[in-house]
Here is the input.
Amino acid sequence: MALRGRRTHSRRGLSTIVTSVMLVAAVAIMGSFLVTWSNSSFTAQRVAIANQTDTKINLIRESFVIEDVWFYTQGVQKMNVTLRNTGDVAIKVTHIYINNTQVWTGSQAVNATKVAEISFNKNWNAGSPQSMWVKTLRGSEVKQVWKS
Amino acid sequence: MIIVVASALGTTVWVMQQQGKVTAEIQQRTNEYVNRINENVEISQVRVINNKLNLTLYNDGGSAAQVKAIYIVNETAVPKQQYSYDIDYLVDGRAVVKNVGQTLAFTAKNTTSYTIKVVTKSGSIASAAYTPTASTKLPLSLSIIPPTVTTGENVTLLYSIGNNLTGNEPLIISPVISRTISCPAGLTCTATKLISGAAKVTIESGQFAVVKETYKLDGPPDMLVTFNASFAGAKSGNFVTAKATMIVVGSSQGLTTGIATGPSIFLIVPGPFGDAGQNGLWGVVVVNPTNSPMKVSRALITAFTAAHTGDTVTVTGCSKTALIPSTSAEWTCPHNSMIQWKDLTTPETLAPGETKSFLARVRPGDLSIAEEPGATVVATVYTDIGIFTRTGFTTAMGDNNNPLGAVYLTNTNGTGTGGTGALNNANMLGHKSNIPPNSYQSFHVAIADLDTDSGTYINGGLRLIINVPPGFSGVTVTSAVNLGTPTVTMRADGITQIIATTASSSSGRLGNNSSGEAMVLNFHAVTPSPAADTTYIMFAFIDGLTNASPQISAGAVAELALEIDVP
Here is the structure.
C-alpha cells in the first residue's frame, strides 16, 4: 500500500455558536429599530388622519342657509344678509360674493341653530337678480339668487 | 415581525374606524337633507284678524318642520319696511297649524299689502302675499242681457268677480250693484229690481263668482239705465258699468208681447170721404205689444191736404158719432182736419197684449176744389210711455156729394136688405179679441157706403180685397151677398188673399140707395196656434171708383186686429 503524503490542516475562525449569537443580535437590533420606527410612524399618521377626519366631519356637519336678504337704502344702498346655521357645529362666515364679486370678508361666527346678520354697502338695482355666494372658514358654501 | 404586523393591522382597523365615522356623519347629514326635502311647509292662508296677522301653515311633506322665523314686508310702505321675528311652531307632516302670528308684536292692517315669509329650522322657506281688496283691483265684468230692451221687459245682469289674489284666504265679497236712470224730460222711467243677487259670495283664489240680478225697465224710448257694479270695500276705481237702452220696435204683423216699446198703431180710413151729408168711419186700432199695461189718453187722426186753407177734411167742432169708446164728449174735432179722442182723467188701459179700437163716425169738411185725391192721414196715440205716430195712409175726397166708402170688421153676417145689420154703428168693429188658437172661427168683413144719398155710390165692379195673415189656414168664404164669387188664393208669403168683385152692372153698385148700403163677406178660417198671445193684422181694402164727376177713387182701408189669446 502506497503511503500518501500527509496534509496538515489549520482549524482557526468563529464557531457556529458565535455566529448564531451575532446574527440573532443583529436581527434583534434591526427588529427593535423597525418596531420603534413603525410605532412612531403609525402614531404620526393616526394623528394626521384623526385631524383630517375631524376636519372633514366638521365640514360635513356644517350647514347653513341664507334666510333673508334685505335690500335697503340708508344714505347709501345697503344689503343685510341673514344666515341661519342649520347644522350642529358653529360656523364662521368669512366671505360673501355677489355676482362673483367679493363684497364682504371677515369672520362672523354663527353658533349652531342660531342666526346672524351681516350688513354691508352694495349698490343694487330694484328688481334685478343678485347671485349671493357665502363661504365659511371650513370651506362650506351656499349660493342663492335673490331679487333686489 | 409579529409585533409589526399587529401594529399594521391595528392601524388599518383604526383608519377604517375613522372612515366609518366620516361615513356615519355623511349618513347623518344625508338624513337631515332628506328630512329637509321631506318637509314642505306652505302658507295656505293669510288673514288679518284683530289687527294681527293670522297665518295657516300646512306641511305637505312627511317630515315634521320646525318654523323658527317669520319675515314680514310691508309692501305698501314707501320704501318697503321689513320686520322679522323669531317664532317656534312645530308643524308635523301632513298637519296644519293655525293662528300663527297672532302673538307677534306686529300690528297689521287690512288695508295694507304684506309679503310674509317663514323659515324652518332646517332652512326651508315658504312665502305668501296678503293683498287686501282695498289695495288692489279685482277683475270685474258686467253683462246686461239684453242690452236693448222695450218697456216692461226684464233685463238680467250677470256680474262676475274674480279673485286674482294669491295666498289670501277665499275672498268674501259683498257685491254692490247700483243704477242710474236717464229719462227724457217730463216722462216717467223706472227700473225695478225683481231678483236680487247674493248678498255675499265666497271666491277661492283664482276663481270667479257670478252674481245675477234681474230688473224690470219701464219707460219711453231713449231711456238709459246705467248699472254700476262694485263691492263693499273695493279699491277706488274698482268698478264696472254697463248700460241698457230703451228702444222702439216698429209695428209689425204678428205681434207677440215684449218685442216692442210702444203701441202698435193701425188705421181704419174711409175712401172716399165724401164729401157728404153723413158721417164717414174713422178708426185707430191700438195694440199693446209690451209686457206692461199701457194707458192711452189720446188718439188723434189728422188728414193733411195740400190744398189751400179753405179746404178741410173735417171741420172744427165737426158733427160726429162716438162708436168706441162711446162717450160722445171724449170725441172732438179740435180744429180743422183733426179728429181727437181724449180722456186724460181715466185713460183707456191696455193690458199686455191687449187691443183696443177707437172708432168714430165724423162728418166730412168741405173742398173748394173738385177733388182732393191725396189727403195724408196721420194717427197719433198718447200713452204713458210716450207719444207715437203712424203714417202711410191717404184718403180721397171730392166736392159736392161723394160716397163715404168704408171697410171694417163687423159682428154680423150682414143679412138683411143692404146689409143693414152691418150699417148699425154698434156692429162696426176694428178688432176681434179673445180668439182661441187653433180654432175654427167666423169672420165678417163689411164694405159700405155710409152716406144716404142714393145718387152717390161706388160703381159696380169694385173689389174687396182681404189679406188674411199668415198662420190662418182653411180660409173658406161662406157667404158674400152681392160680392160675386170671391176667390181665395194662398200667396207665397203665407197670406191668404180673398178677392171679391161686385157685378159690373147696377146690381154691383155700392151705396145706390137712400139708406146707405153694406156688403159683408163672411169666411171661416182655422186660427193659428202661437206659443204666446199674438195679435195678427188682417188688411182689407176697397178698389173701385165712384160715380161722381170727376170720379174719385174708392180706396177705403182697414187694418183689423185679430187677437189670439193662448189659454
Summary: Chain A has two domains: 16-61, 63-147. Residues 63-147 of chain A form a domain with the Immunoglobulin-like fold (CATH 2.60.40.10). Residues 16-61 of chain A form the longest helix (46 residues).
